[in-house]
Write a structure and sequence with these properties.
Layout lengths: L8 E3 H8 L8 H16 L9 E4 L3 E4 L3 E2 L17 E2 L54 E10 L8 H15 L4 E3 L2 H10 L10 H9 L5 E10 L6 E10 L5 E10 L3 H15 L7 H9 L5 H15 L3 H14 L4 H13 L3 H13 L6 H14 L3 H14 L4 H11 L4 H12 L9 H11 L4 H18 L2 H12 L8 H17 L3 H17 L3 H17 L3 H18 L2 H17 L3 H17 L3 H17 L3 H18 L2 H17 L3 H17 L3 H17 L3 H17 L3 H17 L3 H16 L8 H14 L2 H17 L3 H18 L2 H10 L2
Helix pairs in contact: 3-6, 3-8, 4-8, 8-9, 8-10, 9-10, 10-11, 10-12, 11-12, 12-13, 13-14, 14-15, 15-16, 16-17, 16-18, 17-18, 18-19, 18-20, 19-20, 20-21, 20-22, 21-22, 22-23, 22-24, 23-24, 24-25, 24-26, 25-26, 26-27, 26-28, 27-28, 28-29, 28-30, 29-30, 30-31, 30-32, 31-32, 32-33, 32-34, 33-34, ...
């Protein structure tokens, strides 16, 4: 009507006659107001400074912008059923984000059972952060945030009604897909970031904040009163809906009913609010789908709502209990199984989480297409079937291209297959009108896409995300974005910077009251301090992580931290305590069906047996670890085991077997992008090259990685590379260079807390003295190394020290004594399976 008469006043009476025939009875003023607001929203127009639609007080409305008719349509005037002519000035619809914090795609924070195990899928290198794909204009639906309801009597036992009724009302309003509902999780986060006054109506300033975060066009809030009756308790519910743009109250409702009629109350309120927003009543198909998205009874509804609220408050222990009870009250409610899967996943219980996600999918056939795809996507993500997860989220995003949540789920799933495709999806999300296109989570996801390929790009994206989230007071987003930087491969950037990022993530996790997130960051910090050689500090971080995990009932990640402490004790040379901790944590991983944890723990047990001189036991344990890792196709764990088997074969003197195992480990680690672990394997290959007679190649590799580890402040790895460099120089006959190499790393060795790395370097330094003009000067060092190796139970290091002392005896003219020592050493090495030392002893004894 407005476009037919541009520049002219269309009276209120004309609108009334055209839209509502004489036999229709409506609240004309309110309905007309709703219609006008919808037009303004579609045009992104401002009532106070209109560009398109001007209100003429007490008369009607006028369309201000020039109007032209399509060239092919100039022969007839537009009719009411025709598509509208083009408006001369371009416009964009005003959006509002419906933010859903992605569970397991946006940010991978979980550290595995192995000390440096970061569970992440391989990623291809992205080509550009600003990729563009052609896409049709997106219709932006109005977004609604149900903020909850005050319990007016204030009895604590009645507080559950707010969460339960909010869940039901969300379901009612979301039915049909005409509205975008801000997720309960984002509402909880926004209410935490912006404490709301305990009132039934919000001030304009507060509404403006809610319009930006969590991105609500309208908010629904109110109160309820539980009135005791002769039979069932009565509930009086007062509901108010406010427009966040102008601060108007769009609708007010007061209803009452029996306590066991919550579903009916929610349906009545939903219909009334939909009508106030100018929407038609739901069809029977959508009513059926909406009812399928609700539990079968009020008890299940209460437990489900309370369980979900606990998840949003990071209280996963109580969430699991409540959701388990909800399933007991309604075993066939799919969304309760999906929520329990969510709580279990956050608790580190991946196997059980997968089982619940599968059950949710099996029960989801009666849900709406939207809900079914969400449940399917969660299941595919839980089992690691990323192609099908991508398909599910792509379908969701195609159905609702204005949904930032679904776009982020889609982009996050793509990260596991093709980071370039993920960046293209993020570029589409940036083209959504603000504030949707400006959402911090787009930048956060981009940082995740770049983190292992281009750290500068990752940091730039993270900086944008942190700035936006900080401005909104969103500690959760800040923490998770820093967490992405903390998760970078230590071979990409300096460990000190990663530690700063982890500490920032930890501080934001404290501000967000996210105990589980704090535990994950503390675990990561422990791993990083271990890389720096600060083993005592590392153990403190792991123990603090255990405390945080136990607060929220996350036993699986608590086990991982305990296993990490065992690895630290092994490095420190406390083999009995390491064994005790490994034997304590392994059954826990088995009980939780965490095969990755079992595999990595078995690998550590194999290392312990090898260092203790039990090579046959070590091999058996390694093969058990490898078989367990292969069951779940865990390439990361397989890489650890292959590297350990290479060490074992080298101890036995099987140089060909060692090379194959090391090279297989290296290929696998390169394939999955584990640069840090690949560098460690390269150093092992350099050690092997010395034994193969290729000392020049070993020297080149050792120098390269010694410098890399120095840049990354990875003290233990640098010390190990330094020792191998000294050995390679000695093998080349470069005694002077070897002496300089020892002097350059002496201070590093003096500060090292890693007993084995320290012993190996000191042994290499003693060999330099042994090859010098005064070989007897090596005796005190060698005797000290022998005693220390025995005190720790490092059998391999002890045999190496005995070999060097026997060589010293030969050099200092103690021929018979040297021959006796070498014969005894050769026999002992043969008995224990240390073929390499046996071979060296035999060669010296000729």
């Amino acid at each position: 009507m407005l476009l037919e008469q541009p520049g002219e006043v269309v009276t209120r009476e004309d609108v009334c006659k055209h839209l509502w025939p004489g036999n229709t009875f409506v609240d004309f003023d309110r309905s007309l107001g709703v219609a006008v607001r919808k037009v303004r929203e579609a045009l992104d127009d401002d009532a106070e400074a209109p560009r398109y639609l001007e209100t003429i007080p007490r008369r009607g409305f006028r369309f201000l912008a020039p109007v032209t008719v399509e060239p092919g349509d100039r022969n007839h005037a537009p009719q009411h059923n025709d598509p509208p002519p083009h408006v001369a000035q371009a416009f964009t619809a005003r959006p509002s984000p419906n933010r859903y914090l992605v569970i397991a795609g946006l940010v991978v924070l979980t550290v595995g059972a192995g000390l440096f195990t970061f569970r992440a899928s391989p990623r291809r290198a992205p080509t550009t952060a600003d990729a563009r794909t052609a896409a049709p204009p997106v219709r932006i639906r109005r977004s609604v945030a149900v903020l909850g309801f005050r319990n007016l009597p204030g009895r604590k036992e009645d507080n559950w009604l707010s969460a339960a009724f909010s869940e039901m009302l969300n379901t009612e309003l979301a039915a049909g897909g005409e509205l975008r509902l801000v997720s309960g999780e984002d509402v909880a986060r926004a209410k935490s970031d912006l404490p709301l006054a305990d009132e039934d109506s919000l001030a304009k300033a507060t509404l403006e904040r809610l319009r930006t975060d969590p991105g609500a066009d309208v908010v629904v809030l109110g109160s309820y009163t539980l009135l005791p009756g002769s039979g069932q308790n009565k509930i009086r519910l007062d509901v108010r809906m406010q427009d966040t743009a102008v601060g108007e109250t769009i609708a007010e409702e007061a209803l009452s009913g029996d306590e066991d009629q919550l579903f009916d109350l929610a349906s009545q309120v939903g219909n009334s609010l939909r009508h106030s927003l100018g929407l038609a009543p739901l069809s029977s198909e959508f009513v059926t789908a909406a009812r399928a998205a609700l539990p079968a009874n009020e008890k299940a509804a209460r437990l489900y709502a309370e369980g979900r609220a606990k998840i949003w408050a990071f209280d996963f222990h109580n969430a699991r209990d409540l959701l388990t009870q909800a399933i007991a009250a309604d075993p066939n409610y799919p969304l309760a199984h999906a929520a329990l899967s969510d709580a279990l996943w956050h608790s580190g219980r991946q196997v059980k989480a997968r089982s619940e996600a599968q059950r949710a999918l099996e029960l989801s056939n009666h849900l709406s297409q939207e809900q079914h795809l969400l449940v399917e996507g969660q299941y595919r993500r839980a089992i690691g079937d990323w192609p099908k997860a991508i398909d599910a989220y792509q379908s969701l995003f195609r159905l609702f291209p204005d949904s930032l949540d679904y776009g982020l789920l889609y982009a996050s799933a793509q990260l596991h297959i093709n980071a370039s495709a993920s960046l293209e999806t993020l570029a589409r999300l940036r083209r959504l009108p603000p504030p949707l296109g400006d959402d911090a989570r787009i930048d956060m996801t981009e940082a995740s896409a770049w983190i292992n390929t281009d750290l500068n790009q990752a940091r730039a994206a993270a900086k944008r995300a942190i700035a936006k989230a900080s401005a909104q007071g969103s500690h959760v987003i800040v923490s998770r974005t820093y967490g992405i930087l903390c998760q970078q491969d230590p071979a990409v950037d300096a460990t000190a910077q990663a530690i700063n990022d982890c500490q920032s993530a930890l501080q934001s996790g404290v501000a967000a009251r996210d105990s589980n997130g704090q535990g994950l960051m503390l675990n990561d910090l422990g791993a990083l301090y271990c890389l720096r050689g600060e083993l005592a500090r590392s153990e403190i971080m792991f123990r603090q992580a255990i405390e945080k995990f136990r607060e929220v009932g996350n036993l699986d990640d608590s086990n991982s931290a305990l296993s990490n402490i065992a690895a630290v004790r092994l490095f420190e040379g406390d083999l009995p305590e390491a064994r005790k901790l490994l034997e304590e944590s392994t059954p826990r991983f088995q009980a939780a069906e965490d095969k990755e944890g079992v595999a990595l723990n078995l690998n550590n047990m194999g290392d312990l047996s090898r260092q203790s001189g039990n090579l046959d036991v070590a091999e058996t344990t390694y093969r058990q670890a490898k078989a367990t890792a292969q069951e779940i196709e865990d390439k990361d764990a397989i890489g650890y085991v292959l590297n350990s088997l290479g060490d074992l074969y080298l101890d036995r003197g099987d140089l060909a077997g060692a090379r194959k195992s090391y090279e297989d480990a290296l290929a696998l680690r390169k394939q999955i992008g584990e640069k840090q672990l690949a560098a460690e394997t390269q150093v092992s290959l350099a050690h092997l090259s010395i034994e193969e007679g290729h000392a020049v190649d070993a020297e080149k590799t050792a120098r390269e990685y010694k410098q890399l580890f120095h840049q990354q402040q990875q003290a233990d790895d640098e010390l190990r590379a330094s020792g191998i460099l000294v050995e390679s120089l000695l093998a080349e006959g470069k005694l002077g260079d070897a002496q300089h190499a020892v002097e350059a790393s002496a201070s590093l060795a003096a500060k090292s807390e890693n007993a084995l790395s320290r012993l190996e370097f000191h042994l290499a330094a003693a060999r330099v003295l042994l090859e010098g003009e005064h070989p007897a000067s090596a005796r005190p060092s060698l005797e000290h190394i022998l005693l220390e190796a025995r005190s720790h139970g490092f059998v391999g290091a002890e045999l190496e020290a005995r070999l060097a002392l026997a060589e010293l005896a030969r050099k200092t003219q103690h021929g018979p004594a040297a021959q006796t020592q070498l014969s005894s050493l050769e026999e002992l090495a043969r008995a224990k399976g240390f073929g390499l030392i046996q071979r060296h002893a035999a060669a010296l004894n000729r």
